[in-house]
Amino acid sequence: MHKDYWVELIWSDKYKEIKKGERKKYERIYVPLQKVETINKPRVIGEQLTLDLKGTSHTPEYPENYPKDWKNILIWGDNKLAMTALLKGDPDLGIPPMAGKINLIYIDPPFFTGADFSFKVKIDNSEIEKEPTLIEEKAYRDTWKGGIATYLDYMYERLVLMRELLAENGSIYVHLDWHVGHYVKVMMDEIFGYENFRNEIVWVYSGATSPGMRVLARRHDCILWYTKSDDYIFEPDRIRQEFSEASKRMEGRKKIFHHGREEVVIALPEKGKFPEDWIYIPTGVAMIHERVGFDTQKPEALLKRIILASSNPGDIVADFFCGSGTTLAVAEKLGRRWIGCDLSKYAIQVTRKRLLDIHNSKDLTNDDEKRKYGKHSRPFEIYNVGSYELERFKKEPEKYIKFILKLYSAKPLENFSYIHGIKDKRAVHVGFVDSPVTMEEVKKVLEECKKNNFNAVDILGFDFSYEVNEMAKVLGKRKNIDVALIQIPSFNEIKSILATTDIDILKIPDEIVDEKTLEQIKFHEVNYVDLGIKINGREVEIEIKKFIVVPTPELAEISDKIKDSRELIDYWAIDWDYKEDTFHNTWQSFRTKKKPKVEYKAKSTDAKPIGYYKDPGHYKIAVKIIDVFGNELTKIIEVDIK
Ligand SMILES: C[S@@+](CC[C@H](N)C(=O)[O-])C[C@H]1O[C@@H](n2cnc3c(N)ncnc32)[C@H](O)[C@@H]1O
After folding, report:
1. Ligand 1 atom closest to Cα of residue 107
2. Domain count, the chain
3. Residues lining ligand 1, judged by CB closer than 6 Å?
4. Which of 221, 342, 503 should be mutated for ligand 1, with most atoms under 8 A from CB?
5. Which domain holds residue 249?
6. According to the 3-state scheme, what is the secondary structure of 218-275?
């Protein structure tokens, strides 16, 4: 555009001083990613192995341009931090710098909310619905109190990062509606260039109306499509549409065009009608088979059209607000590589299960509604975005202890070595930042409690080594001290609860959250599991005998309906040969709509990507259990195979 004729959208806070036109600098904080789980990938590196998942032999199929050493990526955390980390790359994790590497981005950002706070889970015939807590509502109000201006600021910096990640031939589709669609269009003109706007796609759906409405029923969303350059992927033939009945009736008739005298026989191209920029895709009952319990879930048919038209097999497709993982599931089924990110723990859990169960979902290459995809997902890895607060706390442990005590609403105590605070007459010990509480540590805490006449103690930790889960309470009983192991919520969680996005977590206790709301932060007691282990020669069998979920208000609502608390297990997975690095999921069982209970027994022979226990020896087995509220428990078992 000629520089004398510029047009742009200005919102409060866009410029330091509007008159001067000097843009506010967006801070880019780099926080490394942490790998937490590897799925459908044997531990052996550099070898292509056939995974044998529950008896169904499965060799991943790779389209021609799909590098076999690539692992798809699912990130839990704020997408701003996730994108900054991806731009930089991390060779140790096998992630190359991703600038200019992503061929297609689709996002469906929330309007004026941060993480999706509410969720529904079905147990037997009752549904648990978690409403946003007081604190979440407060976070919502605080984060978006600047209205549309705040929203635009939030989107601006994220869209700038997305542009950097986009390949030269790349496209970005931004799913919006009447709330902010028009503002974002103008903002995207500035970031991507007016000349790179390709079209606005209108998705039309249907729904019930209520009497007395004073507007026309809103039945469409708009999806803005921009490309990085003029040389972009577009394959309309892959998404041609059916001609209308009226057009079909015209076929074979003769028509004289206004401008000529020539008579033309109307012939409709066999491959279908050139795709148009609006499409009707019903939701409601039409989506029933793909629903995974996520309110804002979009139809797979919508994503299929976008992915087919704007990417090729083997390309990288990303969704940084992935919600229930629709984009990722469709990309997987269409042979694209994918990267997904979400701030909500629940969204990550739903997405993980959706991808693990993908073989049971609808096949997208066929119109037959009932035909299943039938293949397992290619390997993928789950990452957490680390927290920069954590790095700071490692250097300043005293500050960290004070911060955690404040979140836990405990009073700090001085002059002790292991007792850091007190809450309701219980001593409080805060475990080290980002490392598991050990049995040695527990022993020292209990000795100090005994000496100082404390008969109850809360031991707070990010993680607990396996013997602590087993032994701490037993040791406490021997010493007449009531021990509770309390999980410190991860920083991601604290952040998504308290601040949603950009607020510096270190400022939270003093400047944002008052005492009353602080009480709402949840420090759960660690769930308890009793595992039965049987070794038959070279086969190990693990059984969940008992699973005890610590009482919470959500649980209280349904507790009378639960006959066996193992029904509260949403997902459990086993790494049969745990090497104290990343958890490699090589067996798993999880709840689905059709099968609302997990299996309680697992055999090492059911998961044999590399033939477990061919050699005798001492092995560690890691068991990960996630309950329906998203709380995670990991237990490590050691076995001797003779
Ligand atoms: C409208 S939903 C997306 C639904 C998705 N298209 C689907 O089909 O399931 C928006 C998602 O963005 C997530 N979100 C909000 N702010 C975020 C942020 N800063 N980083 C990552 N995810 C975020 C929310 O947790 C929510 O799951």
Report:
1. 6
2. 4
3. 78-79, 108, 110, 114-116, 294, 296-298, 321, 323-324, 326, 341-344, 347, 501
4. 342
5. 241-274
6. CCEEEEEEEECCCCCCCCHHHHCECCCHHHHHHCCCEEECCCCCCEEECCCCCCCECC
